[in-house]
Design goal:
By secondary structure, this protein is of the alpha/beta class. The chain is 35% helix and 15% strand. Helix 5 packs parallel to helix 7.
Amino acid sequence: MNWISNYVRPKINSLFSRREVPENLWTKCPECGTMLFHRELAENLNVCSNCDHHMAISPRDRFKSLFDTGIFTEVKVPEAVVDPLHFKDQKKYPDRLKAAQKATGEKEAMLVAEGEIGRTQVVAVAQDFSFMAGSMGMYVGNAILAAAERAVKLKRPLILFSAAGGARMQEGILSLMQMPRTTVAVQMLKEARLPYVVVLTHPTTGGVTASYAMLGDVQISEPNALICFAGPRVIEQTIREKLPEGFQRAEYLLDHGMLDRVTHRKSLREELITILRMLTNQPPAVKGDLPAPTPEPAVVATPAAPTAG
C-alpha cells in the first residue's frame, strides 16, 4: 500500500483544489452589477446596498417584514376555473401554471393575509410578479374580492401591493372581466368607509393599472417603479417621438400628481402605520413592541390618626 498516493496526495489536492460555491449564495444587482450576498440582501428587504435599487420581493417575504413580529394569517380565496378556454400556445396553460407553482412555491399570483401592523388590524393582499409576471386572471379577481369582503366583514383597512404585467392572455376576455369585478370590490370598501391604500411596485402595468391599482384612497409607490398602461416603448413607436427621461417612473408620476408618495421599502411599514392610524382616527403609534403603559393614579399619603397616650 503506497501511503503517499493514497493519503498524502489526496490531502494536498484537497487543500489546493477549488471549492465549489453554490450559485444561489450571490445575487447580481440588475442596476449596478454589484454582487450581493443572499443573507445581506434578504435582511435589506431585497434592496441593493450599493445603488438602492428595489428588486422584486415575494408576497410572503413582504408580509413577514410588514406585519408585527412577522405573524399573519392567510385568507382563503375561492378556487377559479382552471383553463376555461383550453388555451395552448407553445405550452398548454395548465402546464404553465404547474411550472409557475413549482418555481415560486405559491398556488397563484396573489396572496391574501390578515394581521396587525403597528397594532392596527388590517387585511393585505400582494401580487407575485415571479408567478407568470403577476398577470391578472380569475384567481386574482377572486383574491381581491375575498380580501375586500374580509375587510368589510371585520371593518378593517385594506392594503394592496401591485406588481403585474397586465391581464393574463391565457384567460382571454375572462381576464379582462376582472377589471370591473375588482372595481366593484373597491367600491364595497368605499361604501363601508374603510381605507384602501395601494402600494405600486415595479412593474405595475396594463389592466391592473387601469383598475384596482389606481383606485386607492392613498397611492404610494416604491422608488423608480414603472407604472403605466402601455409601456414607453409602445408609446414611442406609436407617436414617433422621444419620451422625457424617467417617463412613467414613480418619481415622474409623483411630480405630475398621479401619486401621493414615493417611499423607500425600508420606510414603508412606518409610513403605512402612520397613514392607517390617521385614516382610522387612531392616536399616533407607540414606538416599540408594547403599547404605552396606562398611567397609574397618584397615591396621596394620608396622615395617621393620633393614638391615645
